[in-house]
User: Which sequence fits this backbone?
């Protein structure tokens, strides 16, 4: 078992700074998810940890060892790739047995271990097949079996579920969580899907433009984002952002006027409010708005409201609510849940 | 309707391509009197092995072929040796080069194109300087000399063909093997090689045919010690031999055989291999 530590880790491709001075401690046994838009440096960071790329500067530690220059095979890792990377010219059995053969495990022992691990991921009936004949979920589990058979201390996963359909993806999430609980190994999982990150992670590392934006448990990132990027990345539908102005203890955006307790000089700031914290009421309080569009989700309904400001607001309301486009309503906010960001930098303004 | 028309066109084209080979085969079994007749004889009137006897075992034939050695066994052996060894060496070296170009970007992005430009030079341009080199290096008229130049001229083909095959192997397969503990050589042996076998076989056949039928460099760089099949065939064009179409056709048939046999042996790789680059991308 081993944790992973990155120290001022950087990787530059030509003029592109893919990873920029990343300092990060990934504790032993934790399920850590790297998340961010494509090109944010998350996969490069994973490849650096795996040793498939060499860093431009900085260091990588696995357990107590500085492994920066080590070959991938010496790092005691398991890796599942986006394409799964099953060897097409080998049977499922040979695919799973491959790491054992490299480690020169005697054939009878290897065979027994392959069958055992195939049983745990329920692919023991497929051992004679070729990868090309497997379904997406089966191929996924074979790739897992091949990785867990040597019991690596650290598991690296690069968007392993992206090739699956939506239903299977949700199932596999649960299965991976269960696997993590059983193996108690360090999992480092890369995805661009915020829902995957939220549901699976012990801790999430949000990256953008090669920089780590924020590290923390899913709910703390959701509720206490450090900047506008992180705030906008999590949540479906995304957080509402209202560009406005801060002056004299008041936030102004079009007809919106909110008393706030923020200090500092008058400047442009952005209000962030999640759809579930926007209330749609018929009461006298709040700001008048017109319902422009509704999107029923079954359990809840998304309501798009024009209030005369720069962009429409999205509110999440109960599906019971009788609401229709064209209706006039009033909107109010859950004052405690309002977030403010600097207009220029996007950094969160502490309340 | 479209399918019928397409088949008709393909059949007609096949006939056009195969006709010279058919004619050569028929002529090789014809008596001297039938080589040039009008109207042409589509099949030999009385098939004979006379022509084969003349080229395979001189002296036993009823007609004399002149003082030049029209014996085919020595050139056949020379050709097999030179084309076989040079093609094999070119495939081994070229695949290693292609791998390093594909995976490590050796020489930069433009390097493969520079390599290709070697093939743009007409062989005659390098033939004469090579005679000079070879005289100094004592490589003229030797197996080594001919093999060396064939390796050099085949390499760009091998590199380009193998580049396409290696590019088709997803790099994640190699990375997966490396993370699982495989050394670079193990990755090559267990993952890359099995997946490019068809490519290797097709590439070998391609350069083998190229070197098997090469005439110009062989003529320039050899004399009497080494003599390949194309040189032997070419001798029939000289005034010394007259118009010995029958024996010429017999040698031609014999020269075609190894390529055809090779083609049959590796048939299952051909279909896969020749579709390279056409699928995906």
Assistant:
């Amino acid at each position: 078992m081993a944790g992973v530590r990155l120290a001022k880790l950087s990787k530059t491709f030509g003029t592109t700074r893919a990873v920029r001075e990343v300092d990060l401690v990934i504790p032993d046994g934790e399920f850590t998810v790297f998340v961010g838009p494509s090109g944010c440096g998350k996969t490069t960071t994973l490849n650096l940890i795996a040793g498939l790329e060499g860093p431009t500067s900085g260091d990588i530690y696995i357990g107590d060892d500085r492994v920066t220059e080590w070959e991938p095979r010496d790092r005691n890792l398991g890796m599942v790739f986006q394409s799964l990377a099953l060897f097409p010219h080998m049977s499922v059995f040979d695919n799973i047995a491959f790491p054992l053969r490299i480690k020169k495990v005697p054939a009878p022992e290897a065979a027994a271990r392959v069958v055992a691990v195939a049983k745990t991921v329920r692919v023991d009936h497929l051992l004679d097949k070729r990868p090309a004949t497997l379904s997406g979920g089966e191929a996924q589990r074979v790739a897992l079996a091949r990785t867990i058979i040597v019991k690596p201390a650290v598991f690296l996963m690069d968007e392993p579920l992206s090739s699956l359909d939506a239903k299977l993806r949700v199932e596999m999430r649960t299965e991976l969580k269960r696997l993590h609980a059983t193996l108690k190994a360090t999992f480092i999982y890369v995805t661009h899907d915020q829902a995957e990150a939220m549901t699976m992670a012990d801790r999430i590392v949000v990256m953008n433009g090669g920089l780590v934006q924020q590290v923390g448990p899913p709910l703390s990132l959701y509720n206490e984002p450090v900047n506008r990027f992180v705030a906008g990345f999590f949540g479906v539908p995304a957080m509402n952002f209202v560009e406005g102005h801060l002056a004299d203890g008041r936030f102004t955006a079009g007809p919106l006027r909110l008393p706030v307790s923020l200090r500092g000089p008058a400047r442009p700031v952005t209000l962030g409010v999640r759809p579930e914290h926007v209330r749609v009421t018929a009461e006298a309080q709040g700001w008048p708005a017109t319902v422009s569009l509704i999107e029923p989700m079954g359990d809840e309904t998304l309501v798009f409201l024009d209030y005369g400001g720069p962009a429409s607001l999205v509110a999440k309301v109960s599906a019971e609510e009788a609401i229709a486009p064209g209706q006039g309503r009033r909107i109010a906010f859950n004052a405690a849940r309002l977030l403010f960001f600097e207009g220029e930098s996007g950094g969160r303004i502490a309340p | 309707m479209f399918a019928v028309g397409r088949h008709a066109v393909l059949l007609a084209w096949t006939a056009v391509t195969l006709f010279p080979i058919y004619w050569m085969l028929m002529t090789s079994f014809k008596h001297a009197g039938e080589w040039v007749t009008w109207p042409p004889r589509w099949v030999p009137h009385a098939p004979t092995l006379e022509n084969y006897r003349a080229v395979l075992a001189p002296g036993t034939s009823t007609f004399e072929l002149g003082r030049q050695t029209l014996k085919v066994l020595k050139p056949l052996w020379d050709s097999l040796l030179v084309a076989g060894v040079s093609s094999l060496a070119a495939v081994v070296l070229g695949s290693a080069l292609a791998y390093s170009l594909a995976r490590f970007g050796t020489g930069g992005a433009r390097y493969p194109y520079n390599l290709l430009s070697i093939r743009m030079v007409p062989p005659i341009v390098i033939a004469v300087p090579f005679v000079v080199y070879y005289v100094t290096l004592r490589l003229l008229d030797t197996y080594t000399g001919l093999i060396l130049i064939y390796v050099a001229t085949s390499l760009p083909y091998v590199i380009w063909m193998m580049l396409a095959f290696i590019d088709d192997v997803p790099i994640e397969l190699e990375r997966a093997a490396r993370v699982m503990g495989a050394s670079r050589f193990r990755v090559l042996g267990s993952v890359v090689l099995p997946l490019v076998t068809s490519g290797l076989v097709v590439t070998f056949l391609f350069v083998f045919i190229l070197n098997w039928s090469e005439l110009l460099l062989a003529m320039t760089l050899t004399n009497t010690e080494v003599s390949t099949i194309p040189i032997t065939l070419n001798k029939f064009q000289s005034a010394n031999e007259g118009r010995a179409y029958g024996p010429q056709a017999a040698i031609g048939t014999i020269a075609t055989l190894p390529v055809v046999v090779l083609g049959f042996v590796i048939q299952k790789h051909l279909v896969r291999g020749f579709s390279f680059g056409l699928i995906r991308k």
